[in-house]
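Hi there,

I know you've been waiting on this one. I reran it after we fixed the sequence typo, so this is the corrected version. Both the input and the resulting structure follow.
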Amino acid sequence: MDKVKFEFWFEFASTYSYLSECRIEDLARGEVIAIEWYKKL
């Protein structure tokens, strides 16, 4: 089965990005999701 691509755009200074980043890998672990990390400047 092919992995679903999930694009995660984040901003270093954003508290929302930090909170999301803390949870995103736990949610994707064991699933068929490939996370692609992009920084937004």
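Quick highlight: DSSP finds one helix and two strands in the chain.

Best,
R. S.
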